[in-house]
Amino acid sequence: MSDSMWQGSGVDLDAYLTRVGYEGDVAANLATLQRLHAAHVEAIPFDNLDPLLGRTEVPLDIAHVQEKIVRQGRGGWCLEQVALMAAVLERIGFTFTAFAGRTRIRTGSPFGPALHVALAVHAEDGLWLHDVSFGAYGLHEPMRLMDGARLDGDFSFDLVREMSGERVLRFLRPEGPAELYGFTMDMRYPSDFELLNHFCLTHPRSPFNHRVVLQRTQARVRHLLVGNQLTELRPGEPAAVRELDEAEVLAALQEIFGISLRSADIMALGKVLACR
């Protein structure tokens, strides 16, 4: 195991860059940060399939997350993806901290557990919110981490600060802003990731251990599959929602989300879906 906090020296950087389709030089600057963020979210989906397949551990050390996400072509949930990205950024030479956020868009409440994690990265002229793992409603590229910041594009976002002191990342939809998550800048460490990981894997109120949740964030289209309900988001259009049957869910793994599963896992997941 690496002796650095985020295990950056254990990263196979060439393999990671190939996995996300990143070409060209890498350096600890804003241009690299932006290109890495976009490449990662385009290539690597949010994937909670391991607990549904009966796996009782989802390790966060760099050896395991690389094997799963980089070499096996899988996705991962936010803790795995941010652990991988933190190691990559540390290896390249970036300075950053991790923080945790309370997801609001799926709960409708600002008081849920702080299960989502992301990074605050120093680059050139300031601090940047670098969040590669929120999924279909999340950022495609980093945005400035400051009150009132706004990121405009096909999908737009802003950051507002509430009276409580929490910042809130909002997805600016045509029908009005949707609050994604609230957060403070309290630092989180790999040991905190382990506690959150245990909750996500085992707790009866975890949103990730009892139904399929797959998400993919591409430049012009985003997809979210929860259970058998598929949501597609395109710029300036209402969300398109439809129900999938068991065969369509299994086909969507590769066709929509780009997830490569071993044949034995596909069969096991099919049995899980048939029982629900």
Number of distinct beta strands? 13
Based on CA atoms alone, the radius of gyration comes out at 18 Å
Estimated share of beta-strand residues: 15-25%
Distance between the termini: 40 Å
Order of helices and strands: HHEHHHEEEEEEEEHEEEEHH
Count of helical stretches: 8
The CATH class label is Alpha Beta
Assign an overall shape.
Answer: globular
Brief digest:
This protein is an alpha+beta fold and about 280 residues long. The protein is about 30% helix and about 25% strand. It has a single domain, classed as Arylamine N-acetyltransferase fold.
Written description of the protein model:
The chain is α+β, with helices and mostly antiparallel strands and 276 residues long. It has a single domain, classed as 2-Layer Sandwich (Arylamine N-acetyltransferase fold), CATH 3.30.2140. GO terms for molecular function: N-hydroxyarylamine O-acetyltransferase activity. Its EC number is 2.3.1.118. InterPro entries: Arylamine_N-AcTrfase (IPR001447), Papain-like_cys_pep_sf (IPR038765). This is N-hydroxyarylamine O-acetyltransferase.
Which descriptors would you attach to this protein?
276 residues, alpha+beta, Arylamine N-acetyltransferase fold, eight-stranded antiparallel β-sheet, five-stranded antiparallel β-sheet, 13 strands, 25% strand, globular, EC 2.3.1.118, acyltransferase, Papain-like_cys_pep_sf
